Amino acid sequence: MKTMISMGLKYENGKLLVLDQTVLPHEEKWIECKTADEMVMLIQRLAIRGAPLIGVAAALSLAKMAEEGADPAAIIAAAVKLRDARPTAVNLMAAVDRLVLKQPAENLHRGRITYVAEEIFHEDVLLSDAIAERGAAFINHGDSILTHCNSGGLATAGIGTALGAIKKAHEQEKHVHVYVDETRPLLQGARLTAWELNKFGIPFTLICDNMAGFLMAQGKVNKVFVGADRITKNGDVANKVGTYSLAVLAKYHRIPFYVVAPRTTFDPQCLSGQEIPIEQRKPDEVRAGKSPDACQAWNPAFDVTPRELITAIILDDMVM
Questions:
Q1: 300 and 197 in one domain?
Q2: Are both 196 and 213 inside the same structural domain?
Q3: From CA 179, how far away is CA 143, in angstroms rounded?
Q4: Please, are residues 92 and 85 in contact by the beta-carbon 8 Å criterion?
Q5: What is the Cα–Cα distance from 174 to 225, expressed in whole angstroms?
Q6: CATH label of the domain that carries residue 123
Q7: Which range of residues forms the domain containing residue 91?
Q8: In this structure, is residue 319 part of a structural domain?
């Protein structure tokens, strides 16, 4: 395969490397991923994350297997494991199906698999660019924007989705200010979004998740921008848990609430949010050593925001 480099993933000199997002912002550590099983582990422990990027990562992992001479049966078995690594983000399933699982046996050869994997990577870069341009058009000079989780270059092969639009608005000298939800329990906002905004010199303020309502009541926010892990046929959206709460708060305070995502996140086979499988993660992530070990904890990784709470869904090629 050709060299491909993004903020959180790269393939060069025959090596597939992942930036370990679990140790950011204090350490920038690249991990070599040698097998599909290792990629499954990296995806599940969130060393690599973001709906678009885990789809790209899975594709490159399978292409690496093909380059190393794996037979079709081994590639199919690895594809099944990768597809099941996380159940909510549809981009992962779409990428694996396109590359391997919905292909006839004669297509499971090195040349086609590596070509399509490269295509998936570069398509995601172009999708991110288109999203950023379209999303930035919804941002005005001097806007204060609240965002949740991480939807930037660490979540895609390109500039990002919701955070990509904010970056583009910054490049257009719109002088935006970003309020960053910490995003409990794993602090993707505090650790990752803050890291990206600091890297790009975009003014921002970090807040605890439970401060968002009061922030809105104080008139300090005039837009909310978030990404998505799956968008259903009726426009319901799965995103990092806490997104639904923000949408309810934004509706009450009459603040526009925008979802920004690539078309690869749209799942027309899923009719509504009730059909989205929600990943349940380990209770220890919530307890985090700060509560009794015997304490029960509920830890859904995502929640669902109904379409009626969303001002607009901004895709790379259209607005819903």
A1: yes
A2: yes
A3: 11
A4: yes
A5: 16
A6: 1.20.120.420
A7: 4-129
A8: no
Q: Tell me if residue 229 is catalytic.
A: yes
Task: Look at residues 144, 190, 145, 310 and name the one whose alpha carbon lies nearest to residue 238.
Answer: 310
Question: What is the mean pLDDT of the segment spanning 37-44?
Answer: 98
Tell me how long the chain is.
320
- Could you say which of 181, 229, 236, 316 is catalytic? 229
- The CATH number assigned to the domain holding 229 equals 3.40.50.10470
Which residues is 267 bridged to in the sheet? 232
Residue-wise pLDDT for 212-228, tens only, equals 999 999 999 999 999 99
Domain identity same for 146 and 181: yes
User: How far apart are the C-alpha atoms of 34 and 162, rounded to whole Å?
Assistant: 31
pLDDT (tens digit per residue) in 117-172: 999 999 999 999 999 999 999 999 999 999 999 999 999 999 999 999 999 999 99
Q: Are residues 145 and 279 in the same domain?
A: yes
> In angstroms, rounded to a whole number, what is the distance separating the alpha carbons of residues 112 and 66?
9
